[in-house]
Amino acid sequence: MENILRGDKITLGTCYYPEHWDKSLWEDDLKRMLSVGIEVIRIAEFAWSKVEYREGEFNFDFFDEFLELAAKVGMKVIFCTPTATPPAWLTDKYPEVLNARQDGVLFRHGARRHYNYNSKKYLELTAIIVEKIAEHYAKHESIIGWQLDNEFNCEHWEFYSESDSLAFRVFLKNKYETLEKLNEAWGTMFWNQIYTSWDEIYVPRTTSFGNNNPHHLLDYKRFISDSVCRYAKLQSDILKKYIKPGDFITTNSIFGNLDCCRMTEESLDFITYDSYPNFGYCLNDFERMKDELNDRKWSINLTEARAISRIFGIMEQQSGSTGNHIGMEGPAPRPGQITLWTMQSIAHGADYISYFRWRTCTMGSEIYWHGILDYSGRDNRRLKEVGDVYKKLQCMKEVAGARFKAEVGIVKDYDNGWDSELDVWHGRIEWSSRMAWFKALEKSHTPFDFCYLDHISQEELNGYKVLVYPHAVILTEEGVNKLKNYVEQGGILLLGCRAGYKDSTGKCVMAKLPGLVSDLCGTDIPEYSYVAPDDAVPYAIWNGKKLPAAIFNDLLAPVNGGKVEAEYEDAYYAGTPALISKETGKGKTYYFGGAFTEETALSFLEGLGVASPYKDVLTLPACCEISVREKDGIKYIFVLNYSKENIEVTLHNELTNLYTGAIEKGEVTLEGYGTKVYRL
Ligand code: GAL
């Protein structure tokens, strides 16, 4: 059986819900999908009751019949475990399986994702349903892979049930062994929060003014992630006993409080991502989300997905208007946008694109979340565009398996990500710098990757010319050793303000800042401050380029071989070093005292010689994205026009247009929302 993500082609799929439609529609639906190039469907992720209508009464007829039809027409299937929507009989009889609000009110039956990952009963019932489904269906010829659950931690990424508190205690006992160590790690002497028994510890509860112990909160986030990872592994361990050789296990992510790298390493063959670029146009959020990037912002999420799996899939690719009864309402994709968003995913490393969903549902909470087809199922513009995408993919099979090419890596780690969600001092610089870097990289046409420091191999890390670790607030010895090795081997590392002031408990260190990287950076930080809101943003001039130092300033001093590169201007500390460098081995580290603005990030990209690596190949306006994938020494350049307007691209070299096979050079017009894929 042919499979996906094998590096031989890019495959199209769709999400299909046989349980939503009269059986008389099935065959025609599947044949019409095949006729436009959709070769895979994902099914059953919410259909528990179609297999176990009442507790212990299993009946496999419904999906047997459907799979028989799939085999007859030649449709391949990704089958799902149905645990995202436990049935009413289950939650009614065993309310301990439910998730709860922080104040203890249970999330009742009637929506979805209302369960918790730690109820012993739910783990037991999960194991039963997964085992029964796998045992019965896994050998079916049409099945090529499996999806676990649906969107772990979507909608809710916090869990407050009694089972969670019990499991949290076990997690903490394993981590700290003794209460003394836990009290020490959480700094419980502050405000007299000392624990004298494990039973006094709960998941974070409602407190007088919400300013809960931050070290407790950080461990709680780690605990939620651990809970999801254990739950995913429970399911995948069962599936592995039954699935056919070559069939894959995946899940559709990426949501909060979850270390997707760990989950993928332990339980999946690759991650899949659900890509809804139309969120960039949602009416209820438009003012908040509005900037020149709109749907282009989804490239940051696709970059995330690629940091987890170098080649990944899109399990749900937007194909229609969005919205449910309570929000997220947005327009239909304009002509060309389905292709644009599909190519955006492929440009970033996706070799499987499955559209959400085949036909728009006529009932329930998602009647506005449109699929390819509207309610009637009649042929429409969007279906035709999917067929056109398929034709394009036939001309670009050679791109499959090609790896995204980037010289710049943005370093991240889950601990710092989670800490920045808990701590406004950290959060303010983190989120601002994240978008500043993204915009500077995108608009200057500089491809980049995210690198998860505690998951990426040293060898892969050392492959980047420049690494930026915007705010390495929490540092560990292992992380620092990895960065040091990178620099010693010739890498250029750039750090922004506030590095190293916390340890992994989230407590502040008493060492001179920037703590564990002081020596690597040749920097001391005798003083620091927020930039006052009524002051101008201080800046430094470095190699003739302006470096605005936004939000927060570390006032630097060189130590141990550090060299002052630039000083603050326009501040009461004008003349104090703002940028210090230090050579170590074959490489160099830069410590910059501020948070990054788009202008600062661009100045660094240019100053460090990594901006716009394809400027000699083609010139194009900032409204276009360039992404490059590479295989066997051949580069594939994706040019994506996110604007409504036609734009001109100048090709300085002869390039082969993969869609047409034509050689192009000189001025080329790309229509509004148009895409091109060139072989270099
Ligand atoms: C996804 C989810 C789908 C569907 C879709 C549209 O997050 O996996 O089941 O709900 O959004 O809302």
Throw out a few tags for this protein.
single chain; alpha/beta; TIM Barrel; Rossmann fold; Immunoglobulin-like; 7-stranded antiparallel β-sheet; 18 helices; 24% strand; binds beta-D-galactopyranose
Helix and strand topology:
Layout: E1 11-15, H1 26-36, E2 38-43, E3 52-54, E4 57-58, H2 61-73, E5 76-80, H3 88-93, H4 120-137, E6 143-147, H5 162-176, H6 179-186, H7 214-242, E7 248-250, E8 252-253, H8 260-267, E9 272-275, H9 286-289, H10 298-308, E10 312-318, E11 322-324, E12 327-330, H11 337-347, E13 350-356, H12 381-394, E14 403-404, E15 408-412, H13 414-422, H14 424-443, E16 448-452, H15 458-462, E17 466-469, H16 477-488, E18 492-495, H17 518-521, E19 523-530, E20 539-542, E21 545-548, E22 552-558, E23 563-567, E24 577-584, E25 587-592, H18 598-607, E26 618-619, E27 624-631, E28 634-641, E29 647-657, E30 663-670, E31 675-679
Parallel strand pairs: 1-2, 1-13, 2-5, 5-6, 6-7, 8-9, 9-10, 10-13, 15-16, 15-17, 17-18, 18-25
Antiparallel strand pairs: 3-4, 11-12, 14-27, 19-22, 20-21, 23-24, 24-25, 26-29, 27-28, 28-31, 29-30, 29-31
The structure holds beta-D-galactopyranose.
The site of beta-D-galactopyranose (GAL) has 8 residues, from loops.
At CATH level 2, the architecture of the largest domain is: Alpha-Beta Barrel
How much helicity do the residues have? 25-40%
**Assembly level:** single chain
And the CATH topology of the largest domain?
TIM Barrel
**Rg value:** 26 Å
Mean pLDDT reading? 97
What is the approximate shape?
Answer: globular
Task: Give me the side-by-side strand order of the main sheet.
Answer: 7-6-5-2-1-13-10-9-8
Distance between the termini: 33 Å
Which ligands, by name, code or SMILES, are bound?
beta-D-galactopyranose
Helix/strand/pairing category? alpha/beta
Our count of domains comes out at 3
